[in-house]
Amino acid sequence: MSVASSLGGQAGGGEVAGGLMGRAAPETSSVATSTTAGPELVQLLTPEGERVSHPDYALDLTAEDYRSLYRDLVLVRRVDVEATALQRQGELGIWAALLGQEAAQVGSGRALLPGDYAFPTYREHGVAYCKGVDPLKLLGLFRGVSHAGWDPHDHNFGLYTIVIGSQTLHATGYAMGIQKDGTEDAVIAYFGDGATSQGDVNEAFVFATVFNAPVVFFCQNNQWAISEPLERQTRIPLYQRARGFGFPGVRVDGNDVLAVLAVTRAALRNAREGNGPTFIEAFTYRMGAHTTSDDPTRYRLASDLETWKLKDPLERMKAYLVRSGMADAAFFAGVEVDADALAAHVRKGCIEMPDPDPLSIFDGVYAEPTALLAEERARFAAYLSSFADGPQADADSAAATAGGR
Amino acid sequence: MSVASSLGGQAGGGEVAGGLMGRAAPETSSVATSTTAGPELVQLLTPEGERVSHPDYALDLTAEDYRSLYRDLVLVRRVDVEATALQRQGELGIWAALLGQEAAQVGSGRALLPGDYAFPTYREHGVAYCKGVDPLKLLGLFRGVSHAGWDPHDHNFGLYTIVIGSQTLHATGYAMGIQKDGTEDAVIAYFGDGATSQGDVNEAFVFATVFNAPVVFFCQNNQWAISEPLERQTRIPLYQRARGFGFPGVRVDGNDVLAVLAVTRAALRNAREGNGPTFIEAFTYRMGAHTTSDDPTRYRLASDLETWKLKDPLERMKAYLVRSGMADAAFFAGVEVDADALAAHVRKGCIEMPDPDPLSIFDGVYAEPTALLAEERARFAAYLSSFADGPQADADSAAATAGGR
Amino acid sequence: MAPTTLAKAVNMGLRKAMESDPKVLVMGEDVGKLGGVFRVTDGLQKDFGEARVIDTPLAESGIVGTAIGLALRGYRPVCEIQFDGFVYPAYDQIVSQLAKMHYRSQGTTPLPVTIRIPFGGGIGAVEHHSESPEAYFAHTAGLKVVACSNPVDAYFMIRQAVVADDPVIFFEPKRRYWEKAELDESATPPPLHSATVVRPGDDLTVLAYGPMVRTALEAAAAAAAADEGRSLEVIDLRTLSPLDLVPVLESVRRTGRCVVVHEAPVFLGMGSELAARITEACFYSLEAPVLRVGGFDTPYPPSRLEEAYLPDLDRVLDAVDHAFAF
Amino acid sequence: MAPTTLAKAVNMGLRKAMESDPKVLVMGEDVGKLGGVFRVTDGLQKDFGEARVIDTPLAESGIVGTAIGLALRGYRPVCEIQFDGFVYPAYDQIVSQLAKMHYRSQGTTPLPVTIRIPFGGGIGAVEHHSESPEAYFAHTAGLKVVACSNPVDAYFMIRQAVVADDPVIFFEPKRRYWEKAELDESATPPPLHSATVVRPGDDLTVLAYGPMVRTALEAAAAAAAADEGRSLEVIDLRTLSPLDLVPVLESVRRTGRCVVVHEAPVFLGMGSELAARITEACFYSLEAPVLRVGGFDTPYPPSRLEEAYLPDLDRVLDAVDHAFAF
Ligand SMILES: Cc1ncc(C[n+]2csc(CCOP(=O)(O)OP(=O)(O)O)c2C)c(N)n1
Ligand SMILES: Cc1ncc(C[n+]2csc(CCOP(=O)(O)OP(=O)(O)O)c2C)c(N)n1
Ligand SMILES: [Mg+2]
Ligand SMILES: [Mg+2]
Fold it and tell me: Using the beta-carbon criterion (under 8 Å), do B373 and C55 form an inter-chain contact?
């Protein structure tokens, strides 16, 4: 398998219709709890792998679509597991695992057309994959060799954003630009349950609704913001936030890749058609630690994890493929081979990622360089060169490299 | 009439019951326009001065209560008109008129008990009056002699707040403190329609709901944020913002002092009883310019003003008092006398307000003074003293004063 | 060539920028019909339409955050922050997002966003309307920070800021909005990031920017007229980040004395950086330490105190005297 | 008396503060059950309850804004900002509200709020987790700003910050969290706003604070051991606003040379203010300009570059050499 061929999968081939979304999304006044999603949840595939229908969200896929969705889920999880292992082995400084959120990311990522722009947090490895970013490039940030390994414009996939919520405004602005351009592109902004408390996210709702911008707010409610449960952020289901701003909100089973795909497509279509923003709450669960630095045993119960394991997004797709006869053992074996190849690519590439040149500290601060910074750089270069066999062997050799510039 | 006696009027004498507010406030999906409020508006007194009832908001007042509410409206407007005139005459640098918003302020201000704390914007002159702040003290800020002329704790009335929305978080924090103290006080946070777009205000909603804090969010929707109409801030009625955070929102006729009183009392009671925050949208109109620096003819139609003049908060109360026989000509004349006296007090006090001592620049920066600042002050004092008959006559004489310290 | 106010000059510069490039947008609170509270955007919405001159919701973080998104889409937004004291809600978007995104993207993603901020005191305003927050931005790598002092610079500098591919924080001296000068639109301006000697002199160098340039010039005139007949060289810094030190160092090496003037509090104000750098570069030329004249290290006081708070001709001359007393 | 880490020392100081005054609250993201991402608040919620140790919604402006309200109600909130780079959303609440409210209220309304910020780099973290934003706060009148450098100071300084009636921005050097020292809780600490000579010397004064104090001490030890045998005096500034200049000026007058070290970018960093002030006060004593060693004027780089980015022993010694070369 060529790694490249495993990437770049945009929305599957079949002509797929999502339910038409009216302005008034289903609303209840029930109070959210962290383990039950309530009756308002859109689902097309049960945890047991049973295909169900939903009055508002039809989804008509080919067998090939179903298989490739499953394959993406497996590959994305495999990258995540590999990266987690690389962190444990000291190759990455930290890793923010998406474990458990594969369906939310692949389902929404696959709903995007090439012209659609995605604004991620730091956890959207699955979306990045769907947008054609080589997962290896994601590792640079976590290894500490760069702040971003990809050019956002190459993939219509923004920089990872760590300052919680800030990207939702960028997404809204970008969508306002699309509107001015008069194209049919749309934007998707990813954020977590915790992020909904940030002023920026709420300002994004204001701007998006006032300007009717073609943006989909995609909230992965994984029930936790590090150690804080959902109840620290809201006392009602999160998708209902949208009604306070006058735009539709919908809660989808975030572990159901089909439902997420259908709901996201519908929301994107809505945006393209000039109907403005939609809030999607993908109801899911962070199966791992917040990041590899975190210790969730300090704040949550193992039993919660057990409950959610039963809702695993991969298992249910696998069950459905098997039950429906759309895939056989050879298919599953093939997917494993692809996953192994991708993991090997990621591992090898990661370990071989070179440390950056110390003088690259000064690169790219400005689009139009300044004399002051050039001076500072020159002074530092001279300083580095001053170590003939000084204590800073690293800097020393680096300076030599730099001297060649 | 003694001026003091006209102040400090807290909630009127009668035992007054407001409607019990459930969690689910009346909601519609109608889109707001700037001249019609929609059917959801709570009203107890029509623009024509007809007393009507509302199923959720009973209000049982004595004749004395009605008269004193009217008196407060007149006095507050009179102060406002006087301050506007003082600005025109160069005695104030600027003035933010409350013209048209008297009922929203007096109605809500009179609903407050002495232990309730109000967090104002820069326009809550009527609320200040209800909290016993001598209107004269409000003028200091606008004359430029102080940033605040009153001690917030003396009146449970916070500093005027110019940075839009920031006080809503202070209010929420204060309410969280009340909760910890276990007292039955409540808090009211004032803000405008424009403020609802600020991140801080939405964060206040998050904190208030998550902690179930005893705070009433009182939004005076006067249809304008300087030159921007309501449509620049929201595409649905503002009171519906609350539903996005899971707390009740209600729209009240902001030009109906009775309805505002009843709705605010109910919300405060709700808060005291441990039921958390309420959002009140007082639907009103800014009859004047944004401030005396503004020129509204650049951005709004005179015809709008005409429409709203018919809804004047004072006229309808007057009509009701006359119609119901609760007040006679002597009463109205008496109110005019009181208003004249208050205006004279404000005018005289304003004109006589001394300029502050230049060295007071250094006062109160810290609760625990620093040597560095003391040095800076001393240097400046020496500098000022160096002008025997220098060009800075002002600073000169001020320095002499300062020397006496 | 009619005399043009500074406010009008910015307006003309914006108009020119919008005419030259359809991607240029103007956005902020009240910039549309009202034309801004200082009328700097007067008439632009009428001529360029609501799609290009955008009255935004009342949220500064939202303004800057959406401007970043618009820039990513290929637009060149010019944001107006209504007054200096209202920029802080946008601080994260400015220092963490706008400033760092080009660097974070390894130079792939330019952010041509201009943020206009009327700044400084002297107009008798209430609190939060008279601040000088430039150091908060100049300390932030990735931003460029400039301040204009007169109508001619205002016109050319805003045009240069808009076409620049880096984020520019553009400070306008609000109390000089109504000052006039002849403006020749066909002149060739100096580069945006250059300082200018606005009055040559031999005995002491006065550095100023924005509203204080005029004050410095007045001080120089008074010093020349006084008994001592001191010849002060006045440099308008124009650019605060990056600093243009070339004319500054040349001047101080010649005069041996330097006074920096700004309205912002002295503590960690621009004067501190200038003093430190000049001292390092001109250590053997200095006859006296670089002295700083600025706002006191207090919050901005009530307006009836601002005359005392703000540096004026006398305070500048006092510092000049001190410099000569060393 | 067991050796105590800096993180534990802050924890103990907070515990003591909470025991001493029931009005003291701890609030922030993940400060409760988790005990903070650095475990600085470990065990506090268990012992003092959820009413006093509050896991807040994920919103920094909300944290500081509600802390202000709680302070107005008579509480003494200690807010934790999880990392330096996440304080900016709260910037308006800190610089416009918290800093100015006492002044605006004419001294009637104290704001005893402490904001704890783990700051600085050196732990291999991703972006926004290694910044040194102290100058943004030190430039703001009305705030007090301190930085501890060792467990003993950490313990006493946090206690002093909490009982202070002014808002205190309390910087904790995150890469020193795990360093240990003997802590005698019954000792009498110096005042919060005082600098301390941590190593006496005669030839040059090194000023540092927070994480760089240890680096400065290492440099001093290396300088003493080197051929030249230079004797560096190291001063731990501890307080950044107000500065305690008394021991600094005394020292520089004696040594005639001074180097300031911090992780923050040099441009408009604390070093600029120190250089400007010291030069003015010690003009005739200085044998060389005050030199500054700091982070470069770039955003914080990816962590594999931080060793090169951050001042270390060698960079300090390089500056010392330069100072002697004047
Ligand atoms: C402004 C800001 N504050 C705090 C943090 C530290 N932090 C990183 S992730 C996180 C929790 C985010 O929770 P959520 O939004 O639910 O996203 P998730 O991590 O669960 O995907 C916090 C508090 C941050 N990155 N940015
Ligand atoms: C953070 C901030 N941004 C901008 C301003 C400038 N400003 C002052 S009042 C105002 C409009 C406020 O509108 P609204 O909230 O509706 O209150 P109103 O003045 O109508 O009572 C604006 C934009 C400010 N004071 N604070
Ligand atoms: Mg989460
Ligand atoms: Mg309004």
Answer: no
